[in-house]
Amino acid sequence: MQLTYPKAPSNGVQTLRPALQAALQTRGFGINRQFASAAPGKISLSEAYRGYSLSLEDVSQGKGLQAAKIGDWHYLVFADGVTIADAQLADVHGQVEFSSLNHGNMAAATVDALKLAEQSPQLQGKTVELRVLFVPALHVVAIWLHADSEDVLIPIEPTPNELATTQLYSEAALLAQLKPAADQTRQRFTADTTGLLGS
Predict the structure, then answer these.
(1) What angle do CA 133, 15, 33 make, to 5 degrees?
(2) CA angle 182-187-189, nearest 5°?
(3) What per-residue confidence (pLDDT) applies to 174?
(4) Are β-strands 69-79 and 82-92 bridged in parallel, bridged antiparallel, or unpaired?
(5) Which of 145, 163, 172, 182 is geometrically suited to a Cys-Cys bond with 128, CB 3.0 to 4.6 A?
(6) Which pLDDT belongs to residue 194?
(7) How far apart are CA 16 and CA 101, in angstroms?
(8) What pLDDT does residue 80 have?
(9) pTM for this one?
(10) Organism's domain of life (predicted)?
(11) Angle, alpha carbons 57-175-138 (nearest 5°)
(12) How many CB atoms lie within 10 A of CB 155?
């Protein structure tokens, strides 16, 4: 399996560097131990890839990945070859700006999903673009391996286990698995008269 990436912002790495250095100096609450102990000189970044999102309505109405809205740029942050964070840049009025730094399990789960994909006979010899898909209303995150002929999705943390396990899904299979939960959540929103749900 060969990974390809979209054309990244030319100043993406320069934009991220000060934010990463500031985070390393802070070593604050919520930063994982590997990140907190990383030496600035040992930090490296992956190629940039894009995040996409599907709304609750998209999933409930059976819309496919073509309805996904493009989002932030994502970079995996490594220290001594170990994944320690997921850094994000947002497009703001044609410029990229630092958006967030995720110290949770998402970065390591992304690497694990890519290892799973590499071992899959289904993807042997194929070229795919790395993407990440979010369905925020259902807390679903999936690695999206996009090719012209097919799309393969691998749910990762923090996706709830009852919605999807970490394995390779076709677009149709994953969206069919998510649809009942999307329908149920939509009904709850529709039935809510307090106006507090989703706020």
Answers:
(1) 70
(2) 95
(3) 97
(4) antiparallel
(5) 145
(6) 60
(7) 10
(8) 84
(9) 0.89
(10) Bacteria
(11) 55
(12) 26
Residue 100: which residues within 8 A CB-CB, separation 6 or more? 72, 87, 88
8 Å CB contact between 141 and 104: no
pLDDT of residue 93: 85
Which residues in the chain come in under a pLDDT of 50? Answer: 199
Using omega within 30 degrees of 0 as the cis cutoff, is the peptide bond preceding 158 cis?
Answer: yes
52, 144 contact by CB (below 8 A): yes
Spatial contact of 167 and 182, defined as CB atoms under 8 Å apart: no
Report whether 34 contacts 79 (CB < 8 A): yes
* CA distances in angstroms from 80 to 26, 44, 47, 167, listed in the order given: 20, 8, 16, 28
The torsion angles phi and psi of 145, rounded to 5 degrees, stand at -100, 105
Contact 59, 178 (CB under 8 A): yes
Identify which of 55, 77, 74 has the alpha carbon closest to the alpha carbon of residue 135. 55
Are 83 and 38 a contacting pair, CB within 8 Å? no
- Domains of the chain (ranges, CATH numbers): 2-191 (3.10.500)
- CB burial class (10 A; 0-12, 13-18, 19+) of residue 81? exposed
